[in-house]
Write a structure and sequence with these properties.
Pathway: Protein modification; lipoprotein biosynthesis (signal peptide cleavage). It holds the Pfam family Peptidase_A8. It is a multi-pass membrane protein. The protein is α+β, with helices and mostly antiparallel strands and 265 residues long. The protein contains five helices and four strands; from the N terminus they run αββααββαα. Strands 1-2-3-4 form a four-stranded antiparallel beta sheet. Strand 1 and strand 2 form a beta hairpin.
């Protein structure tokens, strides 16, 4: 008898093996390759950083130009009313912060503003929201606008007085940089209430999703326990013998849910 040629050793492609439902398996394993679906970002972080830088530069430009105009046109003049007593132009040189707070401690305010600016710049690396980009741009521009005054204006380095000329009734007198800072504070408060972090993620929704996932897991666990405890279809039901007459030792009959065969005599 002639020798048969050797069979090829190339293994056949493996077919998907369906899972065994009785073993607690899931659906059949698919042989199709799976793709990694990742969330798509609508705006690149570099673009958002550019928004912050450009907006801050615009705030600084408008702030410094209006201050130069105020020094040239308003210094030494009386108050100019724009909307009666509610809005007016009054030139002052402020050595403190808003509302005159911190007068006499200009150098301390300079350090505080510098720390705030460093914090803003470091936070720009995490930015992932257009709203936060606008807020940080306004805040950075306003802080730098007033810091320029404290560094370069009289009476000296880090002790310069900020030029203020926009009066709001009898409340306080500010400038364009102050307007930007207030607008940024309002935007940050709104974003915080909405639960939007600086990275653009809505943390309130994440917490709700985690709670919903936990509730779903609890419900699935309870359903699995009920399925395990339920008898299989067609399986005989267990009946407990009832107690027979006392002292007779005769086994009792199985409890039935239907009508009795007879009545007692």
């Amino acid at each position: 008898m002639a020798d048969l040629p050797p069979m090829p050793s190339t293994p056949s492609p493996q077919q998907p093996v369906p899972a065994d439902p009785s073993a607690g398996g899931t659906e059949a394993v698919s042989a199709a390759p799976t793709t990694d679906v990742r969330p798509r970002t609508t705006v690149a972080p570099r673009r958002l950083v550019l928004w912050v830088v450009v907006l801050a530069a615009l705030v600084i430009l408008v702030d410094q130009v209006t201050k130069i105009w105020a020094v040239a046109e308003l210094e030494g003049r009386e108050t100019i009313e724009l909307l009666g007593e509610w809005l007016h132009l009054t030139f002052i040189r402020n050595e403190g912060a808003a509302l005159g707070i911190g007068s006499g401690y200009t150098w301390i305010l300079t350090i505080v503003v510098t720390v705030v600016i460093v914090f803003i710049v470091r936070s720009m690396r995490k930015i992932g929201s257009r709203g936060w980009a606008v807020a940080l741009g306004l805040l950075l521009g306003g802080a730098l606008g007033n810091l320029i005054d404290r560094i370069f204006r009289e009476p000296g380095f880090a002790q310069g007085h900020v030029v203020d000329f926009i009066g709001y009734g009898d409340l306080f007198i500010g400038n364009v940089a102050d307007i930007a800072v207030v607008a940024a504070a309002v935007m940050i408060a709104i974003l915080s209430v909405q639960g939007i972090g600086i990275d653009g993620q809505r943390h309130v929704d994440q917490e709700q999703d985690q709670e919903q996932a936990k509730d779903d897991a609890d419900e699935e666990g309870g359903a699995a326990e009920r399925t395990t405890d339920a008898p299989e279809p067609g399986a005989p039901t267990k009946t407990s013998p009832s107690a027979g007459p006392q002292g007779s030792g005769a086994p009792g009959t199985a409890a039935t849910s239907g009508p009795t065969a007879g009545t007692e005599s």
